[in-house]
Write a structure and sequence with these properties.
The protein has one domain. The protein is built from seven helices and seven strands, in the order αβααββαββαββαα. Strand 4 and strand 5 form a beta hairpin. The termini are far apart.
């Protein structure tokens, strides 16, 4: 039986996959048993997989063929201590660690109950997206940028297509 929190996360992953499929005109699909095989205590498993196996298991969502250089990690949580963002936020740090990739353009998409849905990414994406002109955003630990997901992928679709091809 699936726990309520796991079901919530699965539902959020499906919502994000559908949204990205609509925006980028391609099929984004949830990774089967996302996180279970290579997440958390099983992180070392990723090192032993072939490149094609990694493609199927990296992140929570499999991008379409024309965006294979994109990695999406999703989190849905009841709360996030935004006040701790100015000191240290272990929860956000852990999520970023799971999302980061040296080979791919990665996005951490997270939903916080009654707060909204946000997207986190690197300075490279920030610079490529015209430094998010006309958008509110915050900088976390000098290297990561967080903004509302509302309209983000739609506005920067051409740039993101170029970065992630």
């Amino acid at each position: 039986m699936t726990s309520a929190s796991k079901a919530k996360g699965n539902g959020f992953e499906r919502t994000v996959a559908k949204h990205l499929s609509d925006v980028f005109d391609g099929n984004f699909a949830r990774v089967p048993t996302s996180g279970a095989m290579t997440g958390g205590i099983n992180a070392d498993v990723l090192e032993r997989l072939s490149d094609s196996q990694k493609l199927l298991l990296e992140g929570d969502i499999i991008p379409p063929d024309h965006l294979l250089n994109m990695k999406i990690e999703c989190k849905a949580h009841k709360n996030l201590s935004f006040s701790k963002i100015y000191t240290e936020n272990k929860q956000l740090d852990d999520w970023i660690t799971q999302a980061r990739s040296r080979q791919k353009i990665w996005f951490l998409i997270f939903k916080i109950n009654n707060q909204g849905t946000f997207v986190c990414f690197t300075r490279n994406v920030f610079k490529s997206c015209d430094q998010l002109v006309d958008r509110n955003y915050m900088v976390y630990k000098k290297y990561y940028y967080v903004t509302s997901m509302d309209g983000f992928f739609e506005k920067y679709k051409p740039v993101l297509l170029h970065l992630c091809k």
